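EI: anyone free to look at a 169-residue chain?
SC: sure, send it
EI:
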Amino acid sequence: MGFEQLAELRDRLRAEREPEEADRAKDLKRKPSPQAKPRIPDPAVEAIWPLQKHFPLAFPVNPAPKVPLKEGILKDAEQHLELLGLTREQLKLGISTWCRGTRYWVSMVENAQRLDLNGEPAGVVTATQATYAKQQASRQRGQDRRHRARSKNGGQTLVTDTAVERSTN
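SC: here you go
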């Protein structure tokens, strides 16, 4: 079978599949059943959205990598509370949540430019800060692995050979 024939077959299969996919999309758009639990919005996420909307260079949308933020960015952002439509507490929660994730820790490498709200350079990441960020990222990955292991085992903690060795020594 030549390339032209394969391309023709691919196109024919796509054409047959499109009506099925449209039906599936309609099913997904249906209203949830009354028994479905209402979604409770995450306050941290609710605070991050306005930051991303008004300051996209400092708070990029995933999958873009996060960038190290200027030290004291909270004070700068507090000047824009009215624009953001947030309270000081909501802003603090949003920024602290933003700066705690693995994506943020990975961006904190030595001599990386820190950015202000407008995406302008405002300092650099020091060696000490980079080391701390690397430790935090490692710690976060370890917690994530333990959490996944617990959820796979119904919430029970696994006893490993090393744990048994430590308890016998």
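EI: The mean pLDDT is 82.
SC: 👍
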